[in-house]
Inverse folding.
């Protein structure tokens, strides 16, 4: 996508978007972004944003804050001051993951407190402070009575469909299409991490763990530090978001039992293969009683020809099992960042369209 179109209604300005380190991630150049926190704020009005020029700017080793229209923040305090202003309408958070939420959580808090929209590709803020952010997003949101939390479909200022399985609309389906009828989920299970899926498939073909990991890194899918992926934490973070947003059960990191794939051997894969099974890193939420779920992430043997067993290469997918919709399966093949980037754009457009229908956005800077 070379250009990002502006949004207008009868020629009327709808607002501006503040991207927090998002284009670093989008361009695959996260490592070259050394100006944290950095903000880029563009007016959303007549004209377009030239994505090709922006990517050239990043490829030249420049930070996003120095691009035309960017706002350089000298530190966290400067960033918070900016986010408290009326110079933008939507914060897009693509900051690197930090277990405590990091500076991304600070940015999202500031934006929501200022009455702005927040679109998240970064899972950290939701994992560290889901209930708080729903509360800040307001509009009837916040903690519901008992052990449940209002689903984000009722807090449209906070959107995060890109945080679970990239471009696959897991969050949207779970919080709106399936949840609107008060369906009760007996089980949600899935393969949420394409890196581990690729490594296990390659090991099943005879490659060693280290060789398969190195190849995934060479292809640019696995991170230079793959710990979050192979130790199961990335999958667990997505399960935490599902538990909070879809199951409406307050969930933190300590509530999930996590085992990664480091101890899976070729001998184990060969033994599974003899009986028509394969290993997958499976996330599961299993209902034990109303409002009570056991949450696990672990390597599991599954039938090769089952839905989860058939997820190959870079595919991710999950299965919803509920009383009303019974079994709903969905998957995506995502070998690049484009689907996840498109999910972020989808959320931004939802915010803009909501504003176009009557919810005011701030004036142009």
């Amino acid at each position: 996508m070379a250009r990002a179109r502006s949004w207008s209604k009868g020629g009327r300005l709808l607002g501006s978007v503040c991207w927090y380190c998002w284009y670093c991630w989008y361009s695959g150049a996260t490592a070259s972004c050394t100006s944290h926190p950095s903000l880029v704020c563009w007016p959303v009005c007549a004209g377009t944003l030239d994505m090709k020029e922006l990517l050239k700017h990043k490829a030249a080793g420049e930070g996003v804050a120095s691009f035309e229209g960017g706002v350089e923040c000298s530190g966290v305090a400067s960033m918070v001051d900016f986010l408290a202003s009326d110079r933008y309408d939507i914060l897009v958070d693509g900051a690197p993951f930090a277990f405590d939420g990091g500076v991304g959580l600070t940015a999202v808090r500031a934006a929501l407190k200022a009455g702005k929209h927040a679109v998240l590709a970064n899972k950290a803020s939701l994992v560290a402070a889901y209930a708080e952010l729903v509360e800040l997003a307001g509009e009837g949101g916040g903690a519901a009575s008992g052990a449940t939390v209002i689903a984000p479909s009722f807090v449209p200022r906070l959107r995060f469909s890109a945080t679970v399985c990239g471009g696959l609309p897991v969050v949207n389906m779970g919080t709106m299409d399936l949840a609107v009828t008060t369906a009760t989920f007996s089980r949600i299970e899935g393969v949420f991490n394409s890196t581990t899926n690729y490594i296990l498939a390659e090991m099943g073909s005879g490659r060693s763990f280290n060789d398969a990991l190195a190849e995934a890194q060479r292809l640019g899918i696995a991170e230079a530090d793959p710990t979050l992926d192979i130790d199961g934490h990335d999958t667990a973070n997505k399960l935490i978001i599902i538990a909070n947003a879809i199951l409406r059960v307050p969930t933190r990191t300590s509530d999930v039992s996590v085992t990664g794939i480091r101890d899976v051997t070729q001998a184990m894969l060969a033994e599974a293969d003899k009986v028509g099974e394969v290993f997958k890193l499976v996330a599961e939420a299993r209902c034990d009683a109303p409002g009570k779920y056991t949450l696990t992430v672990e390597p599991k043997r599954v039938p090769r020809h089952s839905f989860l067993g058939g997820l190959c290469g870079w595919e991710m997918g999950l299965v919803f099992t509920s009383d009303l919709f019974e079994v709903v399966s969905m998957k995506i093949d995502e070998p690049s960042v484009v689907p996840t980037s498109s999910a972020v754009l989808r959320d931004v457009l939802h915010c803009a369209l909501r504003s176009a229908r009557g919810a005011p956005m701030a004036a142009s800077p």
